[in-house]
Amino acid sequence: MANDNLKVLNALDVAKTQWYHFTAIVIAGMGFFTDAYDLFCISLVTKLLGRIYYHDAGDKNPGTLPPNVSAAVNGVAFCGTLAGQLFFGWLGDKMGRKRVYGMTLMLMVICSIASGLSFSNEPKAVMATLCFFRFWLGFGIGGDYPLSATIMSEYANKKTRGAFIAAVFAMQGFGILTGGMVACIVSAAFKSKYPAPAYEDDPLRSTVPQADYVWRIILMFGSIPALMTYYWRMKMPETARYTALVAKNAKQAAADMSKVLQVELEVEQEKVVEKQQNNFGLFSKMFLKRHGLHLLGTTSTWFLLDIAFYSQNLFQKDIFSAIGWIPPAKTMNAIQEVFKISRAQTLIALCSTVPGYWFTVFFIDRIGRFVIQLMGFFFMTVFMFALAIPYHHWTQKDNRIGFVVMYALTFFFANFGPNATTFVVPAEIFPARLRSTCHGISAASGKAGAIIGAFGFLYAAQSQDKTKTDKGYPPGIGVKNSLIVLGVVNCLGMLFTFLVPESKGKSLEEMSRENEDADEDVIDMESVRNNENRTVPV
Fold first, then answer.
1. In a 3-state reduction of DSSP, which class is residue 322?
2. Is the pTM of this model over 0.90?
3. What is the residue-averaged pLDDT of the chain?
């Protein structure tokens, strides 16, 4: 027989939307705001780093980061994020969400500041220290994924839980937008204060010495929103679901939630004791039976989504150049190039990225996670093939606006689709004692896909003609073939979505089956065997 749910958890499930819900969204969301700012702001300054530290006297084009250095600078934070998602996801289930939540934030603050204080002025020393601190910055960011999602899911009511978790994730869009805006403001200020000629007019003077401060300020700014949030994170009580179901302290759970909900809640310690028998672990047969396919679904869809999502950045430079947002590098000075790149990213975020996130927030509890994810993968597949098959058509000057529209729609349906739902669902369908761990595993799988998407396709998308590849890169399969591969990846994502259950309108305990005894599955199996052994009289 299934046990009745604890009253403190029922109270959370049926609670009306209150001020504490919005407080939790802001506190968790500001972490994600910082995550996105720190992860994406590096792309705004890599061109500047190339000009400052890899200038080649006599070259007709500005200096650029060598392929291996570029991959390290851009990718090391992803590697740290992957490790952090696994480690802090596990730690969040062992030590509690609240205790670990503060650790991740302080790590982000310290490493964000240290990233801008990279030592020496020698290229190797600067890149090595930058990569070191960005790895540990990513490690802290990785912890924020499972903890923010889990905390928000365990605080929310079941009617609007999807919107609340998606709203936390949607702060990522504002982080990307703010990154572009900060870079615009800083570069515009330095450009005004320290005017310089274009590279083609004077290669040496086109990069003023003060340009070295620009990238440092942009990277260090990410510490400010995280630091502002730290106090409020420490004031949050531990979630009732962790306290009652994992720490087995019903009295503390009722006391904490009585303050939050401002109602008196009954202590039910005896029910907590009953639930201790249902304690199977991550590597148990019972977990494999109940949640094995669910974990396969959340990991595979997040992995496939991030391959496609992060590879889209490869085509930004072609699109920006095609519509005249970014002129050739040699026609600009160093700081001017930062301004042009950041302005372009700000416009993309404003018109495509941010709206997609908030469409998900509005619709997720109306049409469900499954429909949004399936629809998102479907349209991403359609637009990828629509870009790939007639690729030569889109490269013609008269058709470039159509290419930009298709590209923007692909981004829109990624965010109003699997980019949001792959974050939401793992926080809803696993047991409380394994929720943070399973979310961390799913997110780490996604980040592995991001590394493949961002760097595997950086090489794959190179022209098949070795004379047309970017400097330092070997020939690849070309942009057209890369887009076809990405279309297939999105199609696979659509298929694996069928492994993920719909959690709209259901309580966390209903989805994770925590109200059921493990013995029930054994009884069901015995019943099946008994039925099979019965003989039918002739």
1. helix
2. no
3. 84
For residue 509, the SS3 value is helix
In a domain, 270, yes or no: no
Residue 7 domain flag? no
Name the nearest CA neighbour of 237 among 20, 435, 18.
Answer: 20
pLDDT of residue 403: 78
How many whole angstroms separate alpha carbon 100 and alpha carbon 83?
15
Burial 296-313 (b: 16+ CB within 10 A, else e): ebbbbbbbbbbbbbbbbb
Name the H helices within 54-160.
67-95, 97-115, 123-155
Q: Report CA-CA distances (Å) from 475 to 33, 308, 467.
A: 37, 21, 9
CATH code (residue 405)? 1.20.1250.20
Number of domains within the chain: 1
Residue with tokens 């730290």: 230
Task: From residue 82, give the alpha-carbon distance in Å to each of 86, 88, 450, 464.
Answer: 7, 10, 10, 32
- The number of beta carbons lying within 10 Å of the beta carbon of residue 505 is 12
277, pLDDT greater than 60: no
pLDDT digits (tens, 9 = 90+) for 201-259: 888 888 899 999 999 999 999 899 888 888 888 888 888 888 888 888 878 877 877 77
For 26-38, what is each residue's pLDDT tens digit? 888 888 898 889 8
**Residue 3 belongs to a domain:** no
Task: Please check whether residue 209 lies inside any domain of the structure.
Answer: yes
Is residue 100 helix, strand or coil?
A: helix
Q: How far apart are CA 416 and CA 423, in angstroms?
A: 12
Residue numbers of the domain that contains 180: 18-263+285-520
- Residue 339 tokens, joined: 């301004």
Tokens 């979310």 identify what position? Answer: 439
